[in-house]
Description:
The protein folds into 2 domains: about 5-70 and about 220-380, DD-peptidase/beta-lactamase superfamily (Beta-lactamase, 3-Layer(aba) Sandwich); about 75-215, CATH 3.50.80.20. Helix 2 (about 55-65) runs antiparallel to helix 6 and helix 2 (about 55-65) runs parallel beside helix 9 (about 275-290). The chain has 11 helices and 14 strands. The protein has helices spanning about 5-25, 55-65, 105-115, 150-160, 170-180, 215-225, 235-240, 240-255, 275-290, 315, 365-380, and strands at about 30-35, 40, 75-85, 90-95, 120-125, 125-130, 190-195, 195-200, 205-215, 300, 325-330, 340-345, 350-360, 405. By secondary structure, the chain is α/β, with parallel strands linked by helices. The termini are far apart. The strands form 2 sheets. Strands 3, 4, 5, 6, 7, 8, 9 and 14 form an 8-stranded mixed sheet that branches.
Amino acid sequence: MIRIAALVTLAVVVVTVSAVAETTLPLVWHVESADGDELDSHDADVPINPASVVKLATTLWALEQLGPDHRFETRFAIRGTLDEATGVLDGDLLVEGTADPDFHVENAYLIARALNAAGLRTVRGRLLVDDRFWLGWEGGSESKTGAGSREVAMATRLRDALDPARWDRRTRRLVREFRARAGIEGETPAIVVEGAAGVRSGQLDGRILVVHRSNPLRRVLKRFNSYSNNDIERLGESLGTPAELAGRLRGRWGATPRTLNLETLSGLGSNRMTSRHVIRLLRELDATCRRLGLRIEDLLASNGCDPGTLKHFPRLSSGAAATLVAKTGTLIRTDGGVAVLAGVVRTAEGRRFFCVAAPRSGKRLVGAREAEERWVLELIQRHGGARPGECGDGVGYSDDDVVVIREPAGSCR
């Protein structure tokens, strides 16, 4: 591991080449102190596509609207007659989602185990989910299917995940790793659905057997931000539209649609912010975290602490741990491509909020990241060198802190 001194030495080496890099690959940037003083700026009021740095805005909105400890509930109910002696349900298994964005095969395993404990093993009828239930990843808005087909796909995924006889190689591997991680031994639970997988609507008209409560929102957000997962868009079901979020931010900051506009909640598409806006966003997120008893490191990846997209900046990632907490943004084709790095660095002179971007760099992504990395190393050196911090909450799994509740007999909706 490169310690602080090595990191500063490296910064001195690259100072002489940074100017050359910038002439071939222009950068825009903005830097402020912890007190809000402007320290360095170049084209900071020119609108750029911030790519996945948009996720910072979605994160702030989610914290403000839902709170860091919010849990998404998914309810599993039966409609029909359950023979508890045989475990056979003559009827349907129903699922009511509340837009949990981070429900996966491992979570379905926990549900199968809880349903087995409640006496259910075989469903003679169908498995029906609503339009606020998802299982697994989709990749954000670029891969959304048409109305109705998405829900059928999710129902089919759940039916397959509940029944070991339907597992593919990937699912078997995920379950094997999950059982080892969670220390689970013994018989593998199973729910066999003999009917079709389909869609339900309206009020949940069955007897609830099991309720699944997700990880706290703060942990969900840390996973989405560290890996820059575009399915963070799913939070829109609980929050609102990108246009509503853009309107909120413009109202706060006095921005115009030309300089601040959001097409998605993930950063896919043609979004617009300035580097100055990104710093404003970072500062508000940092202040909100402090108000809620968190640190920004609990929501974003830190170097030397967390896996994720910071790996694309290896010299920053290998420095003294927790000197950098940041969000990456990358687009290959949209608006000619862009690479963005925005966050907070700890230096001898204090914390520095920064945003550096390489617009229209899609065909030169590797070079853009190298130029941005050199720029950040120079920033650290100019302010006295790096100072280590403390890692935030780790990037875990979707099953780490979930709660699965068996409802008492007779519970219904």
